[in-house]
C-alpha cells in the first residue's frame, strides 16, 4: 500500500526564525507571518492547520515579535493541547501556554479566587453523574444508567449555553433537542443539582468557566492583570466554541484584536454540547479588517478519498455548507473507496476483521488502521470480531497513555535505572539507549515478540512496546543520548500528554475520531437510522450528521472502506438501506450532479473586505453600530452596550443608575447569584442613559433580551418612570451570564 509521508517523531529544532518557515506552502506561510491584527484561518480537513498555527507562534517567538509568556493558545481537548505543546517545543518555542479553555480558566480561577472571593476555591468534582443521581433521589425521580448520562448531558448543555433551570424547557424546544425525559423533570433535576452543589460547596467543570467569567466581569483590576499577562491569543477548532467560551475569550481580549482563530464550519459536529460555528462564520462581520487565509491543499488523503469527501459536502444545505471549502489533494492517486453491503451486523464486523487481517499480513501496522462507528454501542460487535481473528485493538477514549499503570511503573523503573544503572547487572550488556530501555522494560513484561491474542496482557505489552519504539526514535534523533535524557523526554511528554504511538487497531466513535488520521479507515454501519441517526429529524440535525460522516471520510489517508448491513441480526428482516448521504456517490446509486451547494472558493488570502470573490449566498450583513455622540463605528462589547464610545460624554441619570443598582442587588440576593447575572454594569448604564418609556425601547438596549424583558421589564420601566418596582418573584437568573 502507499503510505502517507509521516514527519519524523522527534525532528531537529530549527536553527533560526526563517528556518521555522521552511517547508510551509504559500497559504501556511501567510498564516505563519500574519502576526498582527485579527486573523481567521479557514482550514479544511488535512490541510495542516495545526502545523500552520504552531509555526505562526514559533516564528513570532523566534523572531522576537512575540514574547512566549504573552501567548495563550487554546483548544478543546487535552490531546490537542498536548500535541500543540509538543510541536512548539520541537520548534524551539518553549514558554508558550497551550491549554484547553477549562484548563486555562481553572488556572486563573485558582490564582484569583482568594483575591476576588476569599478563602479556598471550592472542590472541583471530576464527574457530575453521582451528583445528578443524588439530585434525582432528592426529587424522587428514578433514572436508569442511560438516563443518568443523558440528563447529565442536558445539564452540561444548559450551562454552556447559559440556560437556567426555569428556561430549560423552552430553550431545549427552540434548539430542537431530543430530551431524554419530560423537560419539566429535567428542569427540576437541574435545579436540584445546583442546590446540591451549593450545599456541598463543590463546583463542576462548567462552573469553572462561569466563575472565571464572573470574576473577570466584576473585577476590572483582575481582568486587566490577565490582559497584561496574555496579549496574543490563538483559538483552534473555533467552530466548536460555545457561547460561554466565546464570552470568556472576549473578556481575555478586552478591547484588543490580537487574535488568530482557526476552524472549519464543515467539521462542526458538537452542537449537542452547545458548540456553534456562528462565531467563526461571523468573524469578518465583527472584524471587518481581518486577514482571512483559506487552507484547501489536502496533504492527508488521496484524490479518491478527497473526491468522496467533497461529494458529501456538495449535497449539503445550510449556512455551514455555504462556506464549505473544496479540498484539493496533494497526494498521489490511490485506490477507490470500497463500498460493501452485508446481510447483517455480525457479518459486517467479520468482513471488516478479514480485511484487517489481510492488511496486517501485507505489512500495514495495526496502529494505522481504524474502525469508526456512529455510536459506542456498536463497538462490542467489532471488539468480538477482532478478538476472534486474533487482532490487537485499542478503544479510543480509554485511559490516557501516561496514566496507564504499566506506563507509570515503567517510568519509575527507567528513572531508577538512570540513577543507579551502574549497579544493575541487567544493563551490563546494553550498549546503547534502546538496548538499555529494552533491558529495563523486560523486567516489567516487555518481550521481543507480542503475546498471542488480545486483551489486557496484549494491551500492557503494546504500552511497553510504544516506549521501546520511542527510545529508538529518540536515540536516532539525538545520538549519544543517555537513559537520563530519555527519562527527561518522557517527563516532558507526560506533562504535555504527547503520547507515543501504541500498536493496535483503533476502535472509535466518529465524534472521538475528530482530529485523528490513519492510513486505513473502515466506516461501518453507514445505513439509514444510524447515519443519519434515527433521532436526527430537523434539517440542522440531518446536516450535522452529514458533516459527521465527512469527518469520518477525511480521517483516511489512503484506504477507505464504507459498509452497511441490511439487518441487525442473522436471519433478521433485511429492511435497512444505505445512508442517503451516499446517494450519487457509491457505485450504482445514480448521479449527485447539480444537487450541491456552491463552494466558498479556492485557497488563498483575503485582507479586509477587498477582493472578496465568494459566490455563495450570504446572510444580510448587520449595519455597523455607531456611537450616538460622535458617530464612530463601535466594535468593543462594552461600547456596543452603551451605544457610545467610552470617552464620549455621558448623559446618564445618576439617580436612576443608583436605584437600578440597588434593585439589582436585591434581585441577586434573593436568587443567590452574582449581581451581574441580573444585568451587567454596562447594561444598567445604558438603561440610565436611555431612560426607556416602554418595553419596545427597553428591548432595543443591548443586554436586554426577551427573557430578561419578561422577567425584569416591569420593574425596570417602573424605576425609569420614578415609581417603586413591583414585588413579583425573582426567578433564578442564568448562571454566569455575562453576555448581556
TrEMBL record:
It catalyses: ATP + H2O = ADP + phosphate + H(+); Couples ATP hydrolysis with the unwinding of duplex DNA by translocating in the 3'-5' direction. Residues 650-730 form the HRDC domain. Its cofactor is Mg(2+). The keyword DNA repair applies. Residues 731-740 have a biased composition (Basic and acidic residues). Residues 22-302 form the UvrD-like helicase ATP-binding domain. GO terms for biological process: recombinational repair. GO terms for molecular function: 3'-5' DNA helicase activity; ATP binding; ATP hydrolysis activity; DNA binding. Residues 588-600 have a biased composition (Low complexity). Keywords: ATP-binding, DNA damage, DNA repair, DNA-binding, Helicase, Hydrolase, Isomerase, Nucleotide-binding. Its EC number is 5.6.2.4. The keyword Oxidoreductase does not apply. Residues 303-558 form the UvrD-like helicase C-terminal domain. ATP binds at residues 43-50. It is an enzyme of class 5 (isomerase). One of its GO terms (cellular component) is cytosol. It comes from the Bacteria. Residues 567-624, 721-740 are annotated as: Disordered. InterPro entries: DExx_box_DNA_helicase_dom_sf, DNA_helicase_UvrD-like_C, DNA_helicase_UvrD/REP, HRDC-like_sf, HRDC_dom, HRDC_dom_sf, P-loop_NTPase, UvrD-like_ATP-bd. Belongs to the helicase family. UvrD subfamily. This is ATP-dependent DNA helicase UvrD2. It comes from Streptomyces glaucescens. The lineage of its organism: Bacteria, Bacillati, Actinomycetota, Actinomycetes, Kitasatosporales. The gene is uvrD2.
Amino acid at each position: 500500500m502507499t503510505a502517507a509521508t509521516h514527519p519524523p517523531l522527534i525532528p531537529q529544532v530549527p536553527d533560526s526564525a526563517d528556518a521555522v518557515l521552511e517547508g510551509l506552502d504559500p497559504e501556511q506561510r501567510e498564516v505563519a507571518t500574519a502576526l498582527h491584527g485579527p486573523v481567521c484561518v479557514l482550514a479544511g480537513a488535512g490541510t495542516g492547520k495545526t502545523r500552520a498555527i504552531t509555526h505562526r507562534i514559533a516564528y513570532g517567538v523566534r523572531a522576537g515579535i512575540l514574547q512566549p509568556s504573552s501567548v495563550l493558545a487554546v483548544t478543546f481537548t487535552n490531546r490537542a493541547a498536548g500535541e500543540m505543546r509538543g510541536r512548539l517545543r520541537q520548534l524551539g518555542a518553549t514558554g508558550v501556554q497551550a491549554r484547553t479553555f477549562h484548563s486555562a480558566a481553572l488556572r486563573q480561577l485558582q490564582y484569583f479566587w482568594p483575591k476576588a472571593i476569599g478563602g479556598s476555591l471550592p472542590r472541583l468534582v471530576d464527574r457530575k453523574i453521582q451528583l445528578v443521581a443524588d439530585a434525582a433521589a432528592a426529587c424522587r425521580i428514578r433514572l436508569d444508567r442511560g438516563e443518568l448520562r443523558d440528563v447529565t448531558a442536558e445539564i452540561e448543555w444548559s450551562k454552556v449555553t447559559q440556560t437556567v433551570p426555569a428556561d430549560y424547557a423552552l430553550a431545549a424546544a427552540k434548539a430542537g433537542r431530543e430530551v431524554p425525559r419530560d423537560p419539566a423533570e429535567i428542569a427540576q433535576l437541574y435545579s436540584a443539582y445546583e442546590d446540591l452543589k451549593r450545599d456541598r460547596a463543590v463546583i463542576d467543570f462548567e462552573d469553572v468557566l462561569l466563575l472565571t467569567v464572573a470574576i473577570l466581569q466584576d473585577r476590572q483590576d483582575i481582568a486587566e492583570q490577565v490582559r497584561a499577562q496574555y496579549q496574543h491569543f490563538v483559538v483552534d477548532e473555533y467552530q466548536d466554541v460555545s457561547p460561554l467560551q466565546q464570552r470568556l475569550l472576549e473578556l481575555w481580549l478586552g478591547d484588543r484584536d490580537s487574535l488568530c482563530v482557526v476552524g472549519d464550519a464543515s467539521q462542526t459536529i458538537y452542537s449537542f454540547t452547545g458548540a456553534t460555528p456562528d462565531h467563526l462564520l461571523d468573524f469578518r462581520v465583527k472584524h471587518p479588517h481581518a486577514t482571512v487565509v483559506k487552507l484547501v491543499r489536502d496533504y492527508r488523503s488521496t484524490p479518491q478519498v478527497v473526491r468522496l469527501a467533497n461529494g458529501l459536502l456538495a449535497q449539503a444545505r445550510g449556512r455551514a455548507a455555504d462556506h464549505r471549502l473544496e479540498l484539493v489533494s496533494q497526494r498521489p492517486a490511490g485506490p477507490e473507496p470500497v463500498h460493501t453491503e452485508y446481510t447483517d451486523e455480525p457479518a459486517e464486523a467479520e468482513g471488516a476483521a478479514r480485511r484487517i487481517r489481510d492488511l496486517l499480513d501485507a505489512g500495514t501496522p495495526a496502529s494505522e488502521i481504524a474502525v469508526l462507528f456512529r455510536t459506542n454501542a456498536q463497538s462490542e460487535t467489532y471488539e468480538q470480531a477482532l478478538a476472534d481473528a486474533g487482532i490487537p485493538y485499542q478503544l479510543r477514549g480509554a485511559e490516557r497513555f501516561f496514566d496507564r499503570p504499566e506506563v507509570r511503573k515503567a517510568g519509575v523503573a527507567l528513572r531508577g535505572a538512570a540513577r543507579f544503572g551502574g549497579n544493575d547487572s541487567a544493563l551490563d550488556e546494553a550498549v546503547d539507549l534502546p538496548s538499555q530501555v529494552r533491558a529495563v522494560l523486560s523486567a516489567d513484561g516487555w518481550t521481543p515478540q507480542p503475546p498471542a491474542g488480545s486483551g489486557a496482557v496484549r494491551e500492557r505489552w503494546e504500552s511497553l512496546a510504544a516506549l521501546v519504539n520511542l527510545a529508538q526514535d529518540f536515540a536516532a534523533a539525538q545520538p549519544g543520548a543517555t537513559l537520563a535524557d530519555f527519562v527527561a523526554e518522557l517527563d516532558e511528554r507526560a506533562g504535555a500528554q504527547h503520547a507515543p504511538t501504541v500498536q493496535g487497531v483503533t476502535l472509535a466513535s466518529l465524534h472521538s475520531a475528530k482530529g485523528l488520521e490513519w492510513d486505513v479507515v473502515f466506516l461501518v454501519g453507514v445505513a439509514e437510522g444510524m447515519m443519519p441517526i434515527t433521532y436526527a429529524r430537523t434539517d440542522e440535525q440531518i446536516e450535522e450528521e452529514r458533516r459527521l460522516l465527512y469527518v469520518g471520510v477525511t480521517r483516511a489517508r489512503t484506504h477507505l472502506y464504507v459498509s452497511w448491513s441490511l439487518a441487525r441480526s442473522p436471519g433478521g428482516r433485511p429492511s435497512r438501506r444505505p445512508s442517503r448521504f451516499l446517494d450519487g456517490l457509491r457505485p450504482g446509486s445514480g448521479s449527485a450532479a447539480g444537487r450541491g451547494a456552491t463552494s466558498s472558493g479556492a485557497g488563498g488570502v483575503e485582507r479586509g473586505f477587498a477582493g472578496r470573490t465568494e459566490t455563495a449566498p450570504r446572510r444580510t450583513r448587520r449595519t455597523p453600530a455607531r456611537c450616538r455622540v460622535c458617530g464612530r463605528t463601535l466594535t468593543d462589547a462594552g461600547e456596543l452596550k452603551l451605544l457610545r464610545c467610552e470617552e464620549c460624554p455621558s448623559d446618564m441619570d445618576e439617580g436612576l443608575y443608583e436605584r437600578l443598582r440597588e434593585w439589582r442587588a436585591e434581585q441577586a440576593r434573593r436568587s443567590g447569584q452574582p449581581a451581574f447575572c441580573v444585568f451587567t454594569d454596562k447594561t444598567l448604564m445604558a438603561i440610565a442613559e436611555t431612560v426607556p418609556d416602554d418595553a419596545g425601547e427597553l428591548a432595543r438596549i443591548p443586554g436586554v433580551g426577551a427573557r430578561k424583558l419578561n422577567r425584569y421589564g416591569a420593574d425596570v420601566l417602573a424605576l425609569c418612570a420614578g415609581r417603586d418596582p413591583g414585588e413579583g418573584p425573582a426567578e433564578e437568573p442564568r448562571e454566569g451570564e455575562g453576555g448581556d
